[in-house]
Give the backbone structure.
Amino acid sequence: MARKIVAGNWKMNKTVNEGVQLVEELKNELAKVDTSDVTVVVSPPYVNLSEAVKTAQGSPVNVSAQNVHQEESGAYTGEISAQMLKSVGVGYVIIGHSERREYFGENATDIAKKVDAVITQGLTPIYCCGEVKEERESGNQNEVVGGQISSELFHLSPEDFGKVVIAYEPVWAIGTGLTASPDQAQDMHAFIRDFVSEKYGQEIAEETSILYGGSCKPSNAAEIFSKKDVDGGLIGGASLKAEDFVGIITAFN
Ligand code: PGA
């Protein structure tokens, strides 16, 4: 069975002090609930990572970066490598978020290389895929998501593919308040699992955590997470408040 994961994506929010405070609040809230079968992850901005890792120590909170550069080092002004992320103690890296694709021009080649860079450092990629509104409206969502996954992940060996967490995030649902219905999420997650199974076999497909992302909140998480192929969520807005985020983490119970 796939691991259950709830990962928060803070995006460009929270100063270092605000981030430390949020991790402290999360630790306190999580101490009151049973999180033994859910992996909890937060993804602060780069400059907050080091403090977030220190603050999270000894708690169920794992720390992720929101992006990475594909090269190990060199003349890439403003960029951060997987090796650097490892050196501050993060365990996860979000890769290919739709905002990176749309606003920063990340393409399939970059994303495939970022996945490799992260796996090489022994970190876990949280790989994002998802269709835009027009693609959903024209019924092409499976083709689009299948295309992303095959061009950005299917170069991996079965062993390395087994290290990847997939986040399905329909772009039309991100930050819009529109959520995929639980059935739409389930249909896509089942499609992804079948697609992975055709390439890597059933065992690896069943072990792959497939998270849903897009306007997930405490009020809709339980229904979405109850679906067979939904193994958790990648949470933006609702991960910025400890109470809401914990409400989503405990939606499995
Ligand atoms: P949202 O963002 O929960 O605010 O819609 C999700 C994401 O972008 O990961």
The two ends are 17 Å apart (CA to CA). The domain at 4-252 is CATH 3.20.20.70 (TIM Barrel).
